[in-house]
Amino acid sequence: xxxxxxxxxxxxxxxxxxxxxxxxxxxxxxxxxxxxxxxxxxxxxxxxxxxxxxxxxxxxxxxxxxxxxxxxxxxxxxxxxxxxxxxxxxxxxxxxxxxxxxxxxxxxxxxxxxxxxxxxxxxxxxxxxxxxxxxxxxxxxxxxxxxxxxxxxxxxxxxxxxxxxxxxxxxxxxxxxxxxxxxxxxxxxxxxxxxxxxxxxxxxxxxxxxxxxxxxxxxxxxxxxxxxxxxxxxxxxxxxxxxxxxxxxxxxxxxxxxxxxxxxxxxxxxxxxxxxxxxxxxxxxxxxxxxxxxxxxxxxxxxxxxxxxxxxxxxxxxxxxxxxxxxxxxxxxxxxxxxxxxxxxxxxxxxxxxxxxxxxxxxxxxxxxxxxxxxxxxxxxxxxxxxxxxxxxxxxxxxxxxxxxxxxxxxxxxxxxxxxxxxxxxxxxxxxxxxxxxxxxxxxxxxxxxxxxxxxxxxxxxxxxxxxxxxxxxxxxxxxxxxxxxxxxxxxxxxxxxxxxxxxxxxxxxxxxxxxxxxxxxxxxxxxxxxxxxxxxxxxxxxxxxxxxxxxxxxxxxxxxxxxxxxxxxxxxxxxxxxxxxxxxxxxxxxxxxxxxxxxxxxxxxxxxxxxxxxxxxxxxxxxxxxxxxxxxxxxxxxxxxxxxxxxxxxxxxxxxxxxxxxxxxxxxxxxxxxxxx
Length: 678
Ligand code: IVH
What we know:
With 678 residues, this protein is an alpha+beta fold.
């Protein structure tokens, strides 16, 4: 069926509107409509095009993705070669460049230059015929490149149609396709998570993405364009200067780097370099230098070319951000939560302006994948203010004898076992309370409100007590005297006495709270309560095997393993022993609930309703069952208790009508944490 004139008109209108939003969003960075409105327009257009395939035109915004996968990359001959640039590595090279220009032109007044950031991406040539993008090609050897139209079409900042009303029959735009650092990190993080190959740097990621055969996959890569010049172009259209060319590119709807400037003379060039070098680290994308171009096109023509580079331009490169150095050793650092990270100690080397002597390796998997060994020569990269990282080992330079680094089985700080849960990339020290690396964190947790609830023992004070050597583990808290506290910052006599009293009060706790306070990996508040309810006594829990632990409702293999490992550490048992000797105690569970096979709720049926603040309804039900009770979904005369959270609804009314006792969440928590039950 042929579309009517009004449908054609609507499609054209939608295309124009969407392109204008694309321009505002991707080129100007000033979106005019919310995403939802944009999506609505896209949907409407896609629907129309599906209904009337005759409406589909190659520059329709719907055609960015979904083109055919390129069977292989066709070769594209550049009618006007894509040149490269001479490099300058020091001020002296720029001085010589400016002098040569003066000599050739026979002038002694200051030359005007266009100064531009040198994007570290992939050079691209975009061919627009009658304003419509028909081909995108890489530089290749400068004369013949690869056809990457199918992937370039997916890049939102590449207009499928130029904006100016009267565009020349042929315009070739030259520029750089790049990937932002953020996009690169995210892409690599995704690749790492799914065990795929990561890219060494944003430039490689951009190049790899452009050569991606599947445009759907390419579309998911965060690529962008900055245009910096023209290739082949119809006569009469040529701008008089490089800076006018950049302005023309902008007016055609192309993205031009906002840091491009017109500078005067050598002094202007050198000063621009310093400014860009300072800003470089904060830029969201990589630049590897700056480019100076004689601004006036007539002068450019007069200067001409040498070999493959113009005489009128030069690239002043920044000092390398990737260098080679030697790994002196691989050590393992323990973070505040016990996470163990490999760190490569490097022979100090300057990279991008700073001396680097360490590089973090994300985790054990990455250490194994990159196979970094002491004695290896490695490529080290420092991008902006990012922590230096090892890009790769240079295999040819590996010493004849070298040994792979084995991840530690014991924590390098405290000697506790290192555990790595199945399916997790992070390995952790199991030392918990005794590992100095984790001490402050563990103590903060121990004293916190939902754990031992020691009022007044906050983060700052814990830091001071640990730094002063007064508190090494949780038991030391119960050894503190008021006069010792007085030496701490901002601690008066009154608050010292108050704190000692709060510490003393916290001795009376519940088994659930105590277990939670221990900070056993995988054991949150709900799990601690479940374990307390099931075992009733610390002794039976600490001696339970993994199988026994897994037999408890809601305890999975990871938690069972973590509990077992924790209690298997002698120093954890020592601290617990000290805590008990220092008076930390809890009501002995209802007799020995685990052994008699009934918990505190044995023989009772409870219904949970409303929203609980401290746990989900399911977690509450699990705890009831773990403590020997039954749970039901509706209130009846056989219901023993209704546990009632916020916004309870009809169950509360029914319980009241039937005379079923109602527990608030606090009362319920008190019960499961060791309080009695009538
Ligand atoms: S001008 C004749 N301008 O650097 C002019 N190039 O080594 C040739 N590049 O292949 C290029 N930013 O990929 C120019 N503002 C800029 C640039 C730039 C990055 C890249 C481009 C080129 C390489 C030359």
